[in-house]
User: Fold this.
Amino acid sequence: MSKKLPPDVLAYFRQQGAKGGRIGGRRALETMSPEARVARAKKAAAAAVAARKRAAKKTKRKAGE
Assistant:
């Protein structure tokens, strides 16, 4: 069984993870080719549209109850 980590250790891990996350996106854009950046942007845009559609369906269902 796994044990819970102490709060100070969790805070440290959280801080380190956030630090890496901030670096990750910027570093990825520096090293990506323009074509890869376009593909990533298209995928993100498609995901955003899908999320909006899901939210609209959920709202529509609630209104029709």
The two ends are 44 Å apart (CA to CA). The chain is about 85% helix and 0% strand. Residues 34-64 form the longest helix (31 residues). Residues 34-65 form one domain.
